[in-house]
Every structure is written in C-alpha cells, then in structure tokens.
Amino acid sequence: MKSKAALFLMGLFAVLCIMCVQPSVRAAETELPTVKVAMSDDQSIIIERILYEGLRRSGYQMVSQVTGMRTAIADVNYGDAAILSMQTDGWESDTLIKIPVVISHVEFTVYTRNGETYEISTWGDMAGLRVGYRLQNAFVANNVWRTDASKLIEVNSYEELWATLLNDEADVVILPCAERYEHRFPPGVKRLSVIERQACYTYVNSNYRHLVAPLTEAYQAMVADGMMEMIQKSEKHAADKQIILHISSYNAQVEWEHNQIEAIREKLEADLGVEYRSIDLNSNELHSQASFNTIVSNLIRADYVARYPDLIITSGIASLEFVLSNYYLLFPNVPVVFFGVQGF
C-alpha cells in the first residue's frame, strides 16, 4: 500500500506547491470564561468563526450548540444559551438584544427543475406553486406561509429538499445562502433567482447583557482591521504550518488502511512540513452514535473553528460524498483532493 500512497503523494505534492500560504485564527492560549452560543445547523462554519474571534477578543471562549434554527432561537429566548449566532434583522425584544454590527448578508434563493421557466422575484410570485423549504428555518417559513402557495412542503434535510423537486413533489424550493457562497445542488436542479437579501446580526439574551458592549467593540474592531472580511472570504492569517485534513472512508484499525494513513502522514509532515490530521468515518466509535452525519459535522466544527484546513484529502467514496454534501457548511473555499473512488 505504501507504493500506492507514494504515487498519490506525487500528485498531491504538485497541488500543495501552488497553494498560497494563508492565515489561521489562533486559538486562545489561556483558559477563558465560557459562553454558550446557539448555532443553526444550516449556517456555515464561517459564522461560527466570526463568533469565535469576537468572543476571543472580548475575553471569552465559545461553546457551540448546533440545532435547527427555531430551536436555536428558543434556546436563547429561554436562556439555555447566551448568544444566537446569526439571524435576520428585527428580532430585538425584551429578551433578545441585537449586536449592532452586520456580520453577514443572506440571500434567499429559489431553485427549480431544469426546463422550468417560472419568473419569481418576490415571495408573492410563488402564489399557486408547491413550495419546499427546510422545516426549522424561521424566516423562510414565516414568508412562505404568506404566499398563498398551493402546497407547502416542510422537510428536515437538504437531501429531502432536492428530492421534492426531482420527484415533482414541489415546483420550487427556497434556501438561504450566505453571501459569496452557493449551495451544492444535484443534476436536474437549477438556481432560478434571489428574492430577498437580508443583513444578519448576532443576538444576546438579556440576562447576558454584559456581553453586548465587549462583543460590539470586538466586531467593530474586526471590521476596521479587516478580520471580518477575511473570515467571510475564508481567508486566514499566516500560520506556522498549513493543516491538511484527511477524511477516510475506512476503518483505520484495519492494517492496510492504517499503513496507508501513516505513509501519507510521514511523507507530508517530513517533506512538506505540514500538520497532517485524519478522521476515520468508519470507526466503531462514530457508528455507535445515533446521527452519524451530525456527530462528524460537530467534530469538525469543534476542531476547526479556530485553525481551519488548507486542504482536504478524501479516500474512498463515502468521505468524498460527505465532503461534497457538507462543503457549503463546513469547508467553504477549501480545495479538495480525492482518491480511491471507482468509476467517478
């Protein structure tokens, strides 16, 4: 297996040689008081990185609680979390206090099947159509319910959403998408139009109002020194080492896979001086969990919110499919090299 790994690494070396040395937001070196942040599971890790850096500058460390959007809002409303990571404007109340600095813009985008010719530029243009959307998205749900659509289709995942289109169960679907990025959609689906663009803010539970002033100041400083835009573009400060994340489809306890991983690690770390990390999607520990995709996603969010990878390597079809399915959420703008895929 070492010979096969060596052949792969020859090609990989060429990719790495043309990669730019880019920054990394450094993790706090000292223990800081903890703040719990409610994150929506359809928000890119970019928003998490903005919160991480803002809280770090404010003297806090972040613990993420990733759920559906409605649950995240409820968690902050009831004080189960201190901060709602991001929401559109207009959520201020006696319970929620807005940090008055825009951290992102979200475009609400309509998708349909190839060959369809709908003209949709407003929410009202979807009247009479069958409209699909993700169940937990509060802003989309509130607007779709006012459209006089002939049928509203609420689903829990992106996969189900695309399936409603491809199976002719919906005429259009609508998804929020952070500026500069685009959801990956399957063959047979096309991006139709953007019907609204909204500025987004962070909200703080009023019981934690002491966070408002330092977090506002931190965000303003991040705008002024360019860090906010840098994170939004998935750029990074110069790091001591580049990070390569290898996501394997196989069980690393099996000898041939273990030998392959170690051969790649040895070559990359010795010859290129990078930091090599690996995740095994077929480990017994992961498959004992109730929700495999959620567990792996949360592991990546926790490990790479501060120092995110410069390159992703996938081996086998399962790891490639995982990366492609979660690229918008977890790996925005990170190049991907894959091998071990038959009949691609």
Report on the architecture of this protein:
The protein is of the alpha/beta class and 344 residues long. It has helices at residues 2-17, 45-58, 69-77, 138-144, 158-166, 212-224, 227-232, 255-272, 284-287, 292-304, 317-325, 327-330; strands at residues 34-40, 61-67, 83-88, 96-113, 130-134, 151-155, 172-178, 189-205, 243-248, 275-280, 311-315, 336-339. It is 35% helix and 27% strand. The protein contains twelve helices and twelve strands. 35% of the residues are buried. Helix 1 (2-17) packs parallel to helix 8 and helix 2 crosses helix 6. The strands form two sheets. It has an eight-stranded mixed sheet, sandwiched between helices.
The helix content, as a percent range, equals: 25-40%
- In N-to-C order, the SSE pattern is HEHEHEEEHEHEEHHEHEHHEHHE
Shape: globular
- The assigned structural class equals alpha/beta
Alpha-carbon distance between the two ends: 21 Å
Low-confidence stretches: 14-29
- Strand segment count: 12
Radius of gyration: 21 Å
Average pLDDT over all residues: 82
User: How can the largest sheet be summarized?
Assistant: 8 strands, mixed
- Beta-strand content bin: 25-35%
Oligomer: single chain
Order of strands across the biggest sheet?
2-1-3-8-4-7-5-6
| Contiguous helical run count | 12
